[in-house]
Design goal:
single chain, about 450 residues, alpha+beta, Elongation Factor Tu (Ef-tu), domain 3, six-stranded mixed beta sheet, 13 helices
Length: about 450
Protein backbone atom coordinates (compact mmCIF):
# COMPACT_ATOMS: atom_id res chain seq x y z
CA UNK A 1 0.00 0.00 0.00
CA UNK A 2 1.37 3.42 -0.98
CA UNK A 3 1.50 5.90 1.87
CA UNK A 4 -0.11 9.27 1.26
CA UNK A 5 2.92 10.99 2.77
CA UNK A 6 5.78 12.30 0.64
CA UNK A 7 9.40 12.48 1.75
CA UNK A 8 11.70 15.01 0.13
CA UNK A 9 15.24 13.81 -0.49
CA UNK A 10 17.73 16.55 -1.33
CA UNK A 11 20.73 15.27 -3.25
CA UNK A 12 21.18 12.16 -5.40
CA UNK A 13 24.66 11.17 -4.38
CA UNK A 14 25.23 7.86 -2.65
CA UNK A 15 23.31 8.77 0.51
CA UNK A 16 20.40 10.40 -1.32
CA UNK A 17 20.14 7.62 -3.90
CA UNK A 18 20.12 4.98 -1.18
CA UNK A 19 17.55 6.95 0.83
CA UNK A 20 15.20 7.39 -2.14
CA UNK A 21 15.35 3.69 -2.97
CA UNK A 22 14.77 2.58 0.61
CA UNK A 23 11.76 4.87 0.98
CA UNK A 24 10.23 3.68 -2.28
CA UNK A 25 10.63 0.01 -1.41
CA UNK A 26 8.65 0.78 1.75
CA UNK A 27 5.81 2.21 -0.29
CA UNK A 28 6.64 5.85 0.42
CA UNK A 29 6.35 8.48 -2.28
CA UNK A 30 9.65 10.27 -2.82
CA UNK A 31 10.50 13.65 -4.28
CA UNK A 32 14.19 13.42 -5.16
CA UNK A 33 16.01 16.70 -5.86
CA UNK A 34 19.32 16.80 -7.73
CA UNK A 35 20.71 20.07 -9.05
CA UNK A 36 23.15 18.46 -11.48
CA UNK A 37 23.46 18.93 -14.43
CA UNK A 38 21.49 22.20 -14.18
CA UNK A 39 24.07 23.40 -11.71
CA UNK A 40 27.35 21.51 -11.40
CA UNK A 41 29.76 21.34 -8.47
CA UNK A 42 33.49 21.92 -8.69
CA UNK A 43 34.15 18.16 -8.44
CA UNK A 44 31.40 16.47 -10.48
CA UNK A 45 31.43 16.07 -14.25
CA UNK A 46 28.03 14.43 -14.99
CA UNK A 47 24.42 14.55 -13.91
CA UNK A 48 24.36 10.86 -12.99
CA UNK A 49 23.24 9.80 -9.54
CA UNK A 50 25.92 8.47 -7.22
CA UNK A 51 28.80 9.82 -9.32
CA UNK A 52 32.10 8.86 -7.67
CA UNK A 53 34.39 11.87 -7.77
CA UNK A 54 37.34 10.47 -5.81
CA UNK A 55 38.45 6.84 -5.89
CA UNK A 56 36.42 4.14 -7.64
CA UNK A 57 36.98 1.82 -4.69
CA UNK A 58 34.47 1.11 -1.93
CA UNK A 59 37.44 -0.27 0.00
CA UNK A 60 37.98 -3.72 1.45
CA UNK A 61 35.28 -6.30 0.82
CA UNK A 62 36.37 -8.81 3.47
CA UNK A 63 34.21 -9.29 6.57
CA UNK A 64 37.48 -9.29 8.51
CA UNK A 65 37.48 -5.51 8.06
CA UNK A 66 34.99 -3.05 9.55
CA UNK A 67 34.01 -1.58 6.19
CA UNK A 68 33.58 -5.10 4.80
CA UNK A 69 31.24 -5.89 7.68
CA UNK A 70 29.33 -2.69 6.97
CA UNK A 71 28.91 -3.72 3.32
CA UNK A 72 27.50 -7.08 4.35
CA UNK A 73 25.14 -5.44 6.82
CA UNK A 74 23.92 -3.21 4.00
CA UNK A 75 23.41 -6.19 1.70
CA UNK A 76 21.17 -7.72 4.34
CA UNK A 77 19.30 -4.42 4.58
CA UNK A 78 18.68 -4.44 0.82
CA UNK A 79 21.10 -1.66 -0.16
CA UNK A 80 20.87 -0.55 -3.79
CA UNK A 81 24.32 1.05 -3.62
CA UNK A 82 26.03 -2.20 -2.61
CA UNK A 83 23.92 -4.26 -5.04
CA UNK A 84 24.89 -1.92 -7.90
CA UNK A 85 28.54 -1.98 -6.83
CA UNK A 86 28.51 -5.78 -6.82
CA UNK A 87 27.12 -5.80 -10.37
CA UNK A 88 29.62 -3.27 -11.76
CA UNK A 89 32.67 -4.60 -9.93
CA UNK A 90 36.13 -4.44 -11.53
CA UNK A 91 39.25 -6.36 -10.41
CA UNK A 92 40.87 -4.76 -7.35
CA UNK A 93 42.26 -7.53 -5.18
CA UNK A 94 40.47 -7.66 -1.85
CA UNK A 95 38.69 -4.35 -2.50
CA UNK A 96 35.25 -3.72 -3.97
CA UNK A 97 36.01 -1.34 -6.85
CA UNK A 98 33.60 -0.41 -9.61
CA UNK A 99 33.42 0.89 -13.14
CA UNK A 100 32.41 4.36 -12.04
CA UNK A 101 30.32 5.21 -15.11
CA UNK A 102 28.43 1.89 -15.14
CA UNK A 103 27.88 2.19 -11.40
CA UNK A 104 26.41 5.70 -11.57
CA UNK A 105 24.36 4.88 -14.66
CA UNK A 106 22.94 1.80 -12.95
CA UNK A 107 21.80 3.84 -9.95
CA UNK A 108 20.34 6.55 -12.17
CA UNK A 109 18.38 4.13 -14.33
CA UNK A 110 17.01 2.19 -11.35
CA UNK A 111 15.76 5.27 -9.53
CA UNK A 112 14.44 6.92 -12.68
CA UNK A 113 12.36 3.83 -13.46
CA UNK A 114 10.74 3.65 -10.02
CA UNK A 115 7.12 4.90 -10.16
CA UNK A 116 7.24 6.02 -6.52
CA UNK A 117 10.19 8.38 -7.12
CA UNK A 118 9.61 11.80 -8.66
CA UNK A 119 12.90 13.29 -9.84
CA UNK A 120 13.37 17.04 -9.89
CA UNK A 121 16.47 18.43 -11.55
CA UNK A 122 16.72 21.72 -9.70
CA UNK A 123 18.73 23.39 -6.99
CA UNK A 124 17.12 23.44 -3.56
CA UNK A 125 17.71 26.82 -1.95
CA UNK A 126 15.37 26.51 1.03
CA UNK A 127 14.79 23.53 3.27
CA UNK A 128 11.48 21.91 2.25
CA UNK A 129 8.58 21.70 4.66
CA UNK A 130 7.46 18.26 5.78
CA UNK A 131 9.47 15.06 6.11
CA UNK A 132 12.83 15.68 4.45
CA UNK A 133 16.21 14.03 4.18
CA UNK A 134 19.07 16.42 3.42
CA UNK A 135 21.80 14.41 1.69
CA UNK A 136 23.32 17.15 -0.43
CA UNK A 137 26.83 16.05 0.35
CA UNK A 138 30.06 17.80 1.25
CA UNK A 139 29.70 20.10 -1.78
CA UNK A 140 26.33 21.51 -0.73
CA UNK A 141 25.54 24.66 -2.70
CA UNK A 142 26.17 28.01 -0.96
CA UNK A 143 22.46 28.92 -0.84
CA UNK A 144 21.42 25.68 0.82
CA UNK A 145 24.45 25.85 3.12
CA UNK A 146 23.28 29.28 4.22
CA UNK A 147 19.81 27.92 4.93
CA UNK A 148 21.27 25.10 6.98
CA UNK A 149 23.47 27.56 8.87
CA UNK A 150 20.41 29.63 9.75
CA UNK A 151 18.66 26.51 11.02
CA UNK A 152 21.46 24.89 12.99
CA UNK A 153 23.68 27.86 13.80
CA UNK A 154 26.60 29.53 12.11
CA UNK A 155 29.23 27.13 13.43
CA UNK A 156 30.87 25.80 10.29
CA UNK A 157 33.18 22.79 10.38
CA UNK A 158 35.06 21.85 7.25
CA UNK A 159 38.00 19.96 5.83
CA UNK A 160 39.62 19.58 2.45
CA UNK A 161 39.36 16.52 0.28
CA UNK A 162 41.61 15.70 -2.67
CA UNK A 163 41.01 13.59 -5.77
CA UNK A 164 43.58 11.14 -7.19
CA UNK A 165 44.68 11.31 -10.86
CA UNK A 166 43.70 8.74 -13.51
CA UNK A 167 45.96 7.66 -16.39
CA UNK A 168 45.28 5.62 -19.54
CA UNK A 169 46.43 2.00 -19.38
CA UNK A 170 48.12 2.14 -22.77
CA UNK A 171 50.40 4.98 -21.62
CA UNK A 172 51.90 2.92 -18.77
CA UNK A 173 55.32 1.42 -19.61
CA UNK A 174 54.87 -2.26 -18.74
CA UNK A 175 58.56 -2.89 -19.42
CA UNK A 176 59.07 -1.16 -16.05
CA UNK A 177 55.76 -1.56 -14.25
CA UNK A 178 54.48 -4.99 -13.27
CA UNK A 179 51.17 -6.57 -12.32
CA UNK A 180 50.71 -7.98 -8.82
CA UNK A 181 48.77 -7.65 -5.59
CA UNK A 182 50.53 -7.49 -2.24
CA UNK A 183 51.47 -10.97 -1.00
CA UNK A 184 49.76 -12.43 -4.08
CA UNK A 185 46.28 -11.68 -2.73
CA UNK A 186 43.84 -10.97 -5.56
CA UNK A 187 46.07 -12.10 -8.42
CA UNK A 188 47.54 -9.39 -10.63
CA UNK A 189 44.83 -6.79 -10.13
CA UNK A 190 47.21 -3.85 -9.56
CA UNK A 191 49.85 -2.30 -11.78
CA UNK A 192 52.94 -1.45 -9.73
CA UNK A 193 55.56 1.17 -10.54
CA UNK A 194 58.77 0.38 -8.56
CA UNK A 195 61.21 3.04 -7.31
CA UNK A 196 64.73 2.59 -5.97
CA UNK A 197 65.94 4.86 -3.17
CA UNK A 198 67.43 7.67 -5.34
CA UNK A 199 64.29 7.73 -7.52
CA UNK A 200 62.07 7.87 -4.45
CA UNK A 201 64.01 10.70 -2.79
CA UNK A 202 64.06 12.70 -6.02
CA UNK A 203 60.30 12.23 -6.37
CA UNK A 204 59.65 13.41 -2.80
CA UNK A 205 61.85 16.47 -3.31
CA UNK A 206 59.99 17.40 -6.51
CA UNK A 207 56.67 16.83 -4.77
CA UNK A 208 57.55 19.24 -1.97
CA UNK A 209 58.83 21.90 -4.38
CA UNK A 210 55.88 21.71 -6.79
CA UNK A 211 53.41 24.57 -6.99
CA UNK A 212 50.13 23.83 -5.20
CA UNK A 213 46.60 25.14 -5.53
CA UNK A 214 46.30 28.07 -3.13
CA UNK A 215 43.55 28.21 -0.53
CA UNK A 216 41.41 31.27 0.03
CA UNK A 217 42.75 33.56 2.72
CA UNK A 218 39.77 32.94 4.99
CA UNK A 219 40.05 29.15 4.87
CA UNK A 220 42.19 26.97 7.12
CA UNK A 221 43.57 23.72 5.72
CA UNK A 222 42.01 20.81 7.65
CA UNK A 223 42.47 17.41 6.04
CA UNK A 224 40.82 14.09 6.86
CA UNK A 225 43.57 11.55 7.54
CA UNK A 226 41.96 8.98 5.23
CA UNK A 227 42.25 11.26 2.19
CA UNK A 228 45.47 13.17 2.87
CA UNK A 229 47.15 14.80 -0.17
CA UNK A 230 50.49 13.14 -0.89
CA UNK A 231 52.38 16.40 -0.56
CA UNK A 232 50.99 16.89 2.94
CA UNK A 233 52.15 13.40 3.87
CA UNK A 234 55.59 14.08 2.36
CA UNK A 235 55.84 17.24 4.44
CA UNK A 236 55.76 15.09 7.59
CA UNK A 237 59.09 13.47 6.72
CA UNK A 238 61.01 12.10 3.71
CA UNK A 239 60.04 8.47 4.40
CA UNK A 240 56.37 9.05 5.25
CA UNK A 241 55.18 8.05 1.77
CA UNK A 242 57.37 4.94 1.77
CA UNK A 243 55.51 3.80 4.88
CA UNK A 244 52.15 5.01 3.54
CA UNK A 245 50.65 4.74 0.04
CA UNK A 246 54.06 3.91 -1.48
CA UNK A 247 54.91 1.09 0.92
CA UNK A 248 56.52 -1.78 -1.02
CA UNK A 249 55.73 -4.63 1.39
CA UNK A 250 54.39 -7.82 -0.17
CA UNK A 251 55.67 -6.92 -3.66
CA UNK A 252 58.64 -8.26 -5.63
CA UNK A 253 59.93 -6.50 -8.74
CA UNK A 254 60.27 -9.30 -11.36
CA UNK A 255 63.13 -7.43 -13.04
CA UNK A 256 65.32 -7.57 -9.92
CA UNK A 257 63.78 -10.36 -7.87
CA UNK A 258 63.83 -8.00 -4.89
CA UNK A 259 61.39 -5.76 -3.06
CA UNK A 260 61.54 -2.16 -4.37
CA UNK A 261 62.42 0.70 -2.03
CA UNK A 262 58.98 2.17 -2.76
CA UNK A 263 56.13 1.51 -5.17
CA UNK A 264 53.21 3.39 -6.69
CA UNK A 265 50.15 1.19 -7.21
CA UNK A 266 47.59 1.80 -9.94
CA UNK A 267 44.10 0.35 -9.67
CA UNK A 268 41.73 -0.43 -12.54
CA UNK A 269 39.07 2.28 -12.82
CA UNK A 270 36.77 0.94 -15.55
CA UNK A 271 35.43 -2.45 -16.64
CA UNK A 272 37.41 -2.42 -19.90
CA UNK A 273 40.78 -1.95 -18.14
CA UNK A 274 41.53 1.24 -20.04
CA UNK A 275 41.82 3.56 -17.05
CA UNK A 276 43.90 3.30 -13.89
CA UNK A 277 43.97 5.59 -10.86
CA UNK A 278 47.02 6.22 -8.69
CA UNK A 279 46.10 4.61 -5.37
CA UNK A 280 46.38 7.00 -2.42
CA UNK A 281 47.72 9.80 -4.63
CA UNK A 282 45.27 12.55 -3.81
CA UNK A 283 47.00 15.81 -4.61
CA UNK A 284 46.59 19.58 -4.70
CA UNK A 285 49.42 20.27 -7.14
CA UNK A 286 48.43 22.47 -10.05
CA UNK A 287 47.85 20.51 -13.26
CA UNK A 288 51.18 21.28 -15.06
CA UNK A 289 53.07 20.26 -11.94
CA UNK A 290 51.12 17.03 -11.68
CA UNK A 291 52.14 16.18 -15.24
CA UNK A 292 55.80 16.99 -14.50
CA UNK A 293 56.15 15.40 -11.06
CA UNK A 294 54.04 12.27 -11.57
CA UNK A 295 55.87 11.45 -14.80
CA UNK A 296 59.00 11.05 -12.66
CA UNK A 297 57.49 7.79 -11.42
CA UNK A 298 59.14 4.85 -13.26
CA UNK A 299 56.67 3.49 -15.80
CA UNK A 300 54.73 6.77 -16.04
CA UNK A 301 57.21 8.85 -18.04
CA UNK A 302 54.73 9.00 -20.95
CA UNK A 303 51.57 8.88 -18.84
CA UNK A 304 48.41 10.21 -20.43
CA UNK A 305 46.33 11.87 -17.71
CA UNK A 306 42.63 11.24 -18.21
CA UNK A 307 41.86 13.13 -15.01
CA UNK A 308 44.17 15.23 -12.91
CA UNK A 309 43.93 15.31 -9.17
CA UNK A 310 42.08 18.22 -7.62
CA UNK A 311 41.23 19.84 -4.34
CA UNK A 312 37.80 20.84 -3.10
CA UNK A 313 36.27 22.11 0.08
CA UNK A 314 34.15 19.58 1.95
CA UNK A 315 31.72 20.80 4.57
CA UNK A 316 30.28 18.78 7.41
CA UNK A 317 28.12 19.61 10.40
CA UNK A 318 28.83 19.18 14.09
CA UNK A 319 26.74 16.02 14.29
CA UNK A 320 27.31 15.24 18.00
CA UNK A 321 25.74 18.59 18.82
CA UNK A 322 23.00 18.49 16.20
CA UNK A 323 21.88 14.94 15.42
CA UNK A 324 20.08 12.17 17.27
CA UNK A 325 21.20 8.56 16.65
CA UNK A 326 18.10 8.25 14.42
CA UNK A 327 19.72 10.92 12.18
CA UNK A 328 16.91 13.34 12.98
CA UNK A 329 17.89 16.90 13.70
CA UNK A 330 17.53 17.45 17.44
CA UNK A 331 15.57 20.63 16.81
CA UNK A 332 13.21 19.29 14.13
CA UNK A 333 11.65 15.82 14.21
CA UNK A 334 10.84 15.57 10.50
CA UNK A 335 14.25 16.67 9.21
CA UNK A 336 16.91 14.01 8.72
CA UNK A 337 20.49 14.52 7.57
CA UNK A 338 22.61 11.85 5.92
CA UNK A 339 25.76 11.21 3.97
CA UNK A 340 29.21 12.69 4.18
CA UNK A 341 27.92 16.05 5.42
CA UNK A 342 27.15 14.46 8.82
CA UNK A 343 30.77 13.43 9.29
CA UNK A 344 30.78 9.84 8.09
CA UNK A 345 33.79 9.44 5.85
CA UNK A 346 33.68 7.13 2.86
CA UNK A 347 31.34 6.04 0.10
CA UNK A 348 29.96 3.05 1.98
CA UNK A 349 29.47 4.97 5.20
CA UNK A 350 27.65 7.78 3.37
CA UNK A 351 25.26 5.36 1.68
CA UNK A 352 24.69 3.54 4.98
CA UNK A 353 23.67 6.80 6.63
CA UNK A 354 21.19 7.43 3.82
CA UNK A 355 19.79 3.94 4.36
CA UNK A 356 19.22 4.51 8.09
CA UNK A 357 17.73 7.97 7.54
CA UNK A 358 15.25 6.48 5.06
CA UNK A 359 14.26 3.67 7.42
CA UNK A 360 13.41 6.20 10.10
CA UNK A 361 11.74 8.69 7.75
CA UNK A 362 9.43 5.91 6.53
CA UNK A 363 8.67 4.95 10.12
CA UNK A 364 7.94 8.57 10.99
CA UNK A 365 5.28 8.68 8.27
CA UNK A 366 3.73 5.40 9.36
CA UNK A 367 3.75 6.33 13.03
CA UNK A 368 6.18 3.55 13.99
CA UNK A 369 8.89 4.21 16.59
CA UNK A 370 12.33 5.31 15.44
CA UNK A 371 15.10 2.69 15.40
CA UNK A 372 18.86 2.68 15.92
CA UNK A 373 21.12 -0.22 14.84
CA UNK A 374 22.79 -2.22 17.63
CA UNK A 375 26.11 -0.85 18.85
CA UNK A 376 27.76 -4.19 18.05
CA UNK A 377 27.16 -3.63 14.33
CA UNK A 378 29.46 -1.61 12.09
CA UNK A 379 26.58 0.73 11.24
CA UNK A 380 25.42 1.12 14.81
CA UNK A 381 28.91 1.85 16.15
CA UNK A 382 29.51 4.49 13.48
CA UNK A 383 26.18 6.20 14.15
CA UNK A 384 26.86 6.11 17.90
CA UNK A 385 30.19 7.85 17.30
CA UNK A 386 28.87 10.70 15.17
CA UNK A 387 25.83 11.33 17.41
CA UNK A 388 27.58 11.17 20.80
CA UNK A 389 26.59 14.49 22.40
CA UNK A 390 29.60 14.34 24.73
CA UNK A 391 32.07 14.38 21.85
CA UNK A 392 34.10 17.55 21.39
CA UNK A 393 36.32 18.67 18.51
CA UNK A 394 34.43 16.42 16.10
CA UNK A 395 36.16 15.22 12.95
CA UNK A 396 34.90 12.85 10.21
CA UNK A 397 35.12 9.13 10.90
CA UNK A 398 34.84 5.96 8.84
CA UNK A 399 33.84 2.47 9.93
CA UNK A 400 36.57 0.81 11.97
CA UNK A 401 37.01 -1.83 14.66
CA UNK A 402 37.97 0.84 17.18
CA UNK A 403 34.33 1.99 17.28
CA UNK A 404 32.92 -1.47 17.89
CA UNK A 405 32.62 -2.94 21.42
CA UNK A 406 35.33 -5.32 22.59
CA UNK A 407 34.68 -9.05 22.65
CA UNK A 408 34.31 -11.00 25.86
CA UNK A 409 36.74 -13.60 24.53
CA UNK A 410 40.54 -13.47 24.44
CA UNK A 411 40.68 -13.80 20.68
CA UNK A 412 43.41 -11.79 18.93
CA UNK A 413 44.37 -10.82 15.40
CA UNK A 414 42.32 -12.17 12.52
CA UNK A 415 40.36 -14.47 14.82
CA UNK A 416 39.25 -11.47 16.86
CA UNK A 417 38.16 -9.62 13.72
CA UNK A 418 36.29 -12.67 12.48
CA UNK A 419 34.43 -12.97 15.78
CA UNK A 420 33.56 -9.26 15.80
CA UNK A 421 32.24 -9.66 12.24
CA UNK A 422 30.19 -12.71 13.12
CA UNK A 423 28.74 -10.92 16.14
CA UNK A 424 27.85 -7.89 14.01
CA UNK A 425 26.09 -9.93 11.33
CA UNK A 426 24.14 -11.87 13.93
CA UNK A 427 23.11 -8.61 15.59
CA UNK A 428 22.04 -6.96 12.32
CA UNK A 429 19.99 -10.04 11.43
CA UNK A 430 18.22 -10.04 14.78
CA UNK A 431 17.59 -6.29 14.51
CA UNK A 432 16.06 -6.70 11.06
CA UNK A 433 13.67 -9.38 12.35
CA UNK A 434 12.85 -7.90 15.75
CA UNK A 435 12.21 -4.37 14.47
CA UNK A 436 10.64 -5.47 11.15
CA UNK A 437 13.23 -3.37 9.30
CA UNK A 438 12.98 -4.92 5.84
CA UNK A 439 9.65 -4.53 4.01
CA UNK A 440 7.89 -7.60 2.65
CA UNK A 441 4.93 -6.13 0.74
CA UNK A 442 4.45 -5.93 -3.02
CA UNK A 443 5.74 -2.38 -3.26
CA UNK A 444 9.04 -3.53 -1.75
CA UNK A 445 9.33 -6.34 -4.28
CA UNK A 446 8.49 -3.97 -7.12
CA UNK A 447 11.03 -1.37 -6.09
CA UNK A 448 13.71 -3.95 -5.38
CA UNK A 449 13.17 -5.25 -8.88
CA UNK A 450 14.01 -1.84 -10.29
CA UNK A 451 17.54 -2.32 -9.01
CA UNK A 452 18.10 -5.60 -10.87
Amino acid sequence: MINNGIVNVVGAGLAGSEAAFQLARRGVLVRLFEMRPVRMTEAHSTGLFGELVCSNSLRNASVETAVGILKEEMRRLGSIVIATADRTRVPAGAALAVDREEFARGLTEALSADPLIEIRREEVTTIPAGPTIIASGPLTSPLLSSELARLIGSRDLYFYDAIAPIVSAESIDMNIAFRASRYGKGGDDYINCPLDEPQYLAFVAALLEAEKVAAHNFERMIYFEGCMPIEEMARRGPLTLAFGPMRPVGLIDPRTGRRPFAVVQLRQDDSLSRLYNLVGFQTKMIYPEQRRVLRMIPGLAQAEFIRFGSLHRNTFIDSPRLLRPTLQLRSRDDLFLAGQMIGVEGYVESAAAGLLAAINAARLISGAPMVVPPLSTALGSLIAYISDSQRKDFQPMNANFGLMPELGSRARGQLKKSEIGARALTAIGEWIVNEAINPTDSSARHSAGAAN
